[in-house]
Amino acid sequence: MADWIPDVLGDEFEQRTLELDDDTEGPVVATLVRALPAEATWWQRLQGQRRALEGVDVLYVHGWSDYFFQKRLARFWTTRGARFFALDLRKYGRSLRDGQTPGYVADLATYDEDIEAALDAMGRGTDAAASGRRLVLFGHSTGGLILSLWASRHQGVVDAVILNSPWLEFQIAPARAAIAPMVELQARLRPLDVAPQVDLGFYTRAQQEVADPDDPMEVNPLWRPVQTMAVHAGWLHAILSGHKAVAAGLTIDAPVCTLLSARSANPTRWSEDLTFADSVLVVDDIARAALRLGSSVTVERIDGALHDVFLSRHEAREDAYRRLDRWVKGWAAARR
After folding, report:
1. CA Rg, the chain, in Å?
2. CA distances from 65 to 31, 91, 103, 188, 289 (A)
3. How buried is residue 199: exposed, middle or buried, by Cβ count under 10 Å (0-12/13-18/19+)?
4. Handedness of CA 225, 227, 231, 235 (dihedral sign)
5. At residue 181, what are phi and psi to the nearest 5 degrees?
6. Per residue in 103-162, pLDDT tens?
7. What's the pLDDT at 92?
8. What is the mean pLDDT of residues 55-64?
9. Which of 81, 61, 54 is CA-nearest to residue 138?
10. Number of other CB atoms surrounding residue 60 within 10 Å
């Protein structure tokens, strides 16, 4: 396994390349980024003070056509004493190599290898059983779907799951069952066929319109393009299969917190409404689907939030962080 080296985010961030099994396109890697909490001050040690999240590891997974770049999100955890890790999955962001189809897998369970390699690099063993530290999974959009499925399959491993606008249901929920057989056939015959889609770049524009000068984000457009990456039949079949599993009900045995915008907006033409709403998912459908993840689920609806609630305009962004802080404090206190 490669050593930790400075990350493109600079400051306190480091990265490690995780070698994975080759696939039909050649060598495959994932990339783990970490930010560690500062050492306790001499005064804290003298007073015997313990930060609320000491002994906690957080593993973050990004969404579709995305990668990890949110420094403040990492610092939310490290200032509370947690170790923060973010995984750029195979063929995304830091892990994308020449000749690869960006973001492509034919089965979401393929990411088990990425997640297990990350847990091992975090010092937890591949199934996290080697560590006495608590494990929090934190997923955005497609990453939220991937981590929800993984947590449900790995009982007794995860201590909490936090989801930022997880893609738990197809955007036209009633049509999922109807189109799934056609997508499955296409995935078997021509998995790399590109599915038709319309992305006018309005979601990216909305983020730029509401950018917070006090919380600046530097984004690599090669890793997070203005318009979404191409959607291939094999990948879409994998997503629809994940949605079907969620609809049937998962069995996550840890408490789940789902953060969502209060409403959705249709991105067929530009309007100011797109800066106050989720223009990617139908949030009411996601809220209903979240209740099928496990027996302990909290749904937080944030007025004025974008699809990534932590990239929303200032008021909604601060509300998202307040709600996350409140939920985490309650979870940590209950665990103690």
Report:
1. 19
2. 16, 10, 7, 23, 22
3. middle
4. positive
5. -65, -35
6. 999 999 999 999 999 999 999 987 766 678 999 999 999 999 999 999 999 999 999 999
7. 98
8. 98
9. 61
10. 23
Sign of CA dihedral 118, 122, 125, 131: negative
Instruction: Tell me the average pLDDT across 3-25.
Output: 97
| Phi and psi at residue 186, to the nearest 5° | -65, -40
Residues 245 and 114 sit within 8 Å (Cβ to Cβ): no
What's the token pair of residue 257?
Answer: 């917190």
pLDDT-derived band at 1 (thresholds 50, 70, 90) equals low
Q: Which one, of 328, 160, 56, lies nearest residue 151 by Cα?
A: 160
Query: Which structure tokens are listed for 308?
Result: 């990534």
Q: What are phi and psi of 217, to 5 degrees?
A: -120, 130
10 residue type, one letter: G
Is residue 256 within 8 A of residue 166, CB to CB? The reply is: no
Q: Is 107 helix (H, G, I), strand (E, B) or coil?
A: coil
pLDDT score for 48:
58
Banded pLDDT at 42 (limits 50, 70, 90)? low
Eight-class DSSP state of 274: G
The amino acid occupying position 264 is: S
Residue 47 has pLDDT above 70, yes or no: no
Beta strand 56-61 pairing with 13-23: unpaired
Nearest of 167, 7, 133 to residue 59 by alpha carbon: 133
- Domains, the chain: 5-39+53-335 (3.40.50.1820)
The residues, any chain, with a CB within 8 Å of residue 192's CB and separated by 6 or more, are: 101, 104, 232, 233, 234
Give CA–CA dist 8/30, Å, rounded.
15
pLDDT digits (tens, 9 = 90+) for 277-289: 999 999 999 999 9
Backbone angles phi, psi at 113, to 5 degrees: -65, -40
